[in-house]
Write a structure and sequence with these properties.
By secondary structure, the chain is an all-alpha fold. It contains 14 helices and no strands. The chain is elongated and about 90 Å long.
Length: 360
């Protein structure tokens, strides 16, 4: 699997134009228009600041309902802190501080407060809100501040409501697909490793690159499983798939353990096969047995979870044959063959990791 270049416009377009992203864009646009038209009805807020309502929608629209609610609340909290800072700076201006100095003070303090992690995404709004109050508050800073805060809060409520009521996103199937892709990538890497080993064509650079790609895939799948868990929270559509979260986690743990074992197996094979004296470290019979054990492990990971213990028994048997071949080797006790035992340990870890969820 070759990673896509960062500057490839096709990859950007593929990331942007997905079904989930199109749905989010449509809901955000509709919610912004709705908030714009309803903003004049917000109590205690002036209708001339209705444009803040669509902004509130933007800060609260995320791919999951839980993230929308959390981010919206954090944005409003950050706004409140910034508005308080802006009103304080106006008091300083009223006491005689030059407005330029007040701008410097409000920006400096706003940036400092933006370091408070508890504010979450609201950290980005502290300095902005403070500066807006200082520069745009005019003759009625209190009225402006109330309108600013209330209208933004109304936009956040509209955004969260629309996200909750209109096809609330549920990423369970996406997590299933990504876990399956990770499994397939792992199977492909092990199959290629077994073939290369059997035909004496093992390329350490190619194997190392495949392992790095597998690690990147694992990171992205882990993020997708996290997003799947988050998408079920506060989501009425998530009631029927609550058990999927635990299953996804167990599948992820299984595949992650197998991926880590594949990495250590690649390291062991690289040390075994890239220097002189390969046949001394890994005699021909042991090489063939190791290739068979790797191929059997690949079939175990790929096998459907149907209650059959055939693939598991095959993986265990072929690994035992490889271990026996190492034990019969004349150089089995030398330091040079320890990597051969490391390979066996890696395969044993894969077998145990795959025992419960092979093929799922």
């Amino acid at each position: 699997m070759t990673p896509r270049p960062l500057l490839d416009p096709r990859s950007w377009w593929a990331d942007a134009v997905t079904g989930e992203r199109l749905l989010l864009a449509g809901k955000t646009a509709a919610a912004a228009v709705l908030a714009w038209y309803l903003a004049p009805l917000v109590p205690l807020a002036s209708s001339e600041y209705s444009y803040y309502a669509p902004l509130g929608v933007l800060v609260s629209m995320y791919p999951t309902v839980a993230r929308s609610a959390m981010s919206g609340a954090q944005a409003i909290l950050g706004l409140a802190v910034g508005i308080g800072l802006g009103l304080g700076s106006l008091a300083l201006v009223g006491a005689g501080m030059p407005r330029g100095a007040a701008v410097a003070v409000v920006i400096g303090l706003g940036v400092l407060l933006s370091g408070v992690r508890a504010l979450g995404v609201g950290r980005d709004w502290v300095a902005i809100a403070a500066l807006f109050v200082l520069l745009l508050g005019g003759a009625d800073p209190d009225g402006y501040s109330i309108s600013y805060l209330f209208t933004m809060a109304f936009g956040v409520l509209v955004g969260v409501a629309v996200n909750l009521l209109v096809f609330p996103p549920l990423r369970v199937r996406t997590a299933d697909r990504r876990l399956t892709q990770l499994r397939d990538d792992l199977v492909s890497d092990l199959d290629e490793m077994a073939r290369a080993l059997a035909h004496r064509q093992f390329d350490p650079h190619r194997a190392g690159a495949a392992t790095q790609n597998l690690a990147r895939t694992l990171d992205s799948v882990r993020a997708e499983v996290d997003a799947s868990d988050e998408s079920r929270r506060y989501n009425p559509r998530g009631r029927g798939v609550r058990d999927q979260g635990a299953l996804h986690r167990r599948r992820l743990d299984t595949l992650a353990a197998s991926a880590e074992a594949t990495r250590t197996l690649t390291v062991a094979l690289t040390r075994l096969l890239t220097d002189a004296g390969v046949d001394a470290r890994l005699p021909g019979g042991a090489r063939t047995a190791l290739a068979d054990a790797i191929a059997a492990q690949s079939r175990l990971i790929e096998a459907p979870f149907d209650g059959s213990d055939g693939p598991l028994a095959e993986a265990a048997d072929t690994l035992d044959r490889y271990i026996d071949s190492l034990g019969r080797s004349e150089v089995a006790t030398t330091v040079e063959t320890l990597d051969g035992w490391d390979a066996a340990i890696s395969l044993r870890r894969m077998t145990e990791a795959s025992r419960e969820f092979a093929g799922r």
